[in-house]
Input
Amino acid sequence: QVHLVESGGGLVQAGGSLRLSCAASENIFSFNSMGWYRQAPGKQRELVASITSGGTTWYPDSVKGRFTISRDNAKNTVYLQVNSLKPEDTAVYYCNARRLIRGRWNDYWGQGTQVTVSS
Output
């Protein structure tokens, strides 16, 4: 059973920063990729950052230059540094881990952490 535990969310003013953490219950290199998604009320969940086991990162244009995903292998933890926050970044942020097993993708999710940006 894979467990992902997020932390670091909170209330911040526009222009502020937060660092979100996702602690995994096992070696993060056992996953093909890890990522951060967010879901705002009434909207679909969207991917905002990902990192492969090889270290390749990806961001959508909406957060590029403001969000940075990184990892601490010794702590089995993935981080999301979020800077220059905007009110539209308000959402629940979820950590995701993906693993390919016998040709099928398996997704694991954390419980989410709320980020609220005030204007």
